[in-house]
Automatic annotation (TrEMBL):
Taxonomic lineage from the root: Eukaryota, Fungi, Dikarya, Ascomycota, Saccharomycotina
Record's protein name: N-acetyltransferase ECO1
Single GO MF descriptor: chromatin binding
Gene designation per UniProt: TPHA0O01240
The keyword Transport appears for this protein: no
Subcellular location field: Nucleus
Amino acid sequence: MKNLGSSSKSKINPKSVVKNNNKYVQSRLQFNSNKTSRKSNLTKCEKCGMLYSINSIPDIDSHKTYHTMHLSGHKWAKTWGSYIEGPKLIDQKITPPTSSSTSNDSTYTSDLQSKNEYVVVVRPQFPKEVKAASELMSVVNDELNAPHNENDFWATVDGKGKLFLYIKDDRAVGAISVEPIDSTRSRWMVYENKSIIDHIRPHFKVGISRIWVCKEHRSQGIAVKLLEAARTNMNPSRTMQRWELAWSQPTESGGKLASKYNGMKHKSGKLLIPCYI
Ligand SMILES: CC(C)(COP(=O)(O)OP(=O)(O)OC[C@H]1O[C@@H](n2cnc3c(N)ncnc32)[C@H](O)[C@@H]1OP(=O)(O)O)[C@@H](O)C(=O)NCCC(=O)NCCS
Ligand SMILES: [Zn+2]
């Protein structure tokens, strides 16, 4: 994931703490700021990482909202988003990395809805769902330390990308945003040392801009289901192979997920991850 500074837009910004009109600043700028902490009597939540004042009611409210989203996702109405049909993984196990390009071990199931678990794609023409999704993505960007101004590709009608959300018990608990890429941006990355192989130009089709699952729902196979939803729904005319989904500067946990989901064993024995720059 990219690690650049950004302008951000969040609801979480009690004026008592930050004198700034930028709504999402508090949760981002005040992380790890021990100096501010000493001066302003701020406390840092160990679970969500937010710094806030325990003496300020707006701060406490803002922390509550942020904390809940970070740990449990964002409330999601049943009418929001377009339901995704198609392959879903029944069991969450992933086959070991292989050099075969046809390792699609998805099986079909329709049990997600009956469990109140399903995947939707966010529709840019519906402002309420775009707003809720943007609020969730702000928490995602905070955790990834990623720019907050990169939503247009999924949030606007002209955008070429998509945002898929995993809904569980009326909350959006996971997200993947994807965008089309071409071979000029496609590279293999050696998993063990993160080096980019520059002299080969593979042709990956889709870049994973963000992937995230709220803390309470990790290690339940949700990220893999989101990856599968993106793989099978991004291009309606052709289902991609797993290796055609490329990662952008994966985090440590993202790298582990990538190594399991679509790492490819090279004949040298090295594990390669599809990436884009
Ligand atoms: C990375 C992340 C999306 C994984 O979500 P998840 O729903 O917990 O992942 P899954 O349960 O689908 O994991 C599938 C497999 O990937 C591997 N994996 C995923 N996260 C891992 C981790 N933190 N450590 C080790 N292996 C991991 C495991 O092999 C796992 O299968 P297993 O549990 O049967 O061993 C989640 O940890 C997250 O949101 N992290 C913070 C944001 C982030 O770093 N995103 C990645 C950006 S590139
Ligand atoms: Zn918290």
